[in-house]
């Protein structure tokens, strides 16, 4: 099954997550098909801490990709911020 989830990168105590499309059997930080966004929980006020390519997200969901619970929460948050 194809899933959309977060892959951790960044340094120790400075997390940075890429929102990726991957096969569910692959490791968290392993091989992926496409990077469709990022999440930076320690971003400064003037920086963008969350970005999602909504066109690619819609494409992958249309092809049956499932969102992980955390990815779904972030997409919902991104859409709320974008609408406001």
What does this structure look like?
With 84 residues, this protein is an alpha+beta fold. The chain has a single domain, classed as S16 Ribosomal Protein, Chain: A (2-Layer Sandwich), CATH 3.30.1320.10. The protein contains two helices and five strands. The chain has a five-stranded mixed sheet. Strand 1 and strand 2 form a beta hairpin. The longest helix is centred in the C-terminal third of the chain and has 15 residues. The chain is flat, with a radius of gyration of 13 Å. It starts with a strand and ends with a helix. The mean pLDDT is 92.
- So, the CATH homologous superfamily? Ribosomal protein S16
Counting DSSP E segments of at least 2 residues, the number of strands comes to 5
Q: Alpha-carbon distance between the termini?
A: 34 Å
Mean pLDDT figure: 92
Shape: flat
**Helical fraction:** 25-40%
Instruction: Kindly give the count of domains.
Output: 1
User: What Rg is obtained from the alpha carbons, in whole angstroms?
Assistant: 13 Å
By DSSP (H or I, 4+ residues per run), the number of helices equals 2
Trace the largest sheet across and list its strands.
Answer: 4-3-2-1-5
Order of helices and strands: EEEEHEH
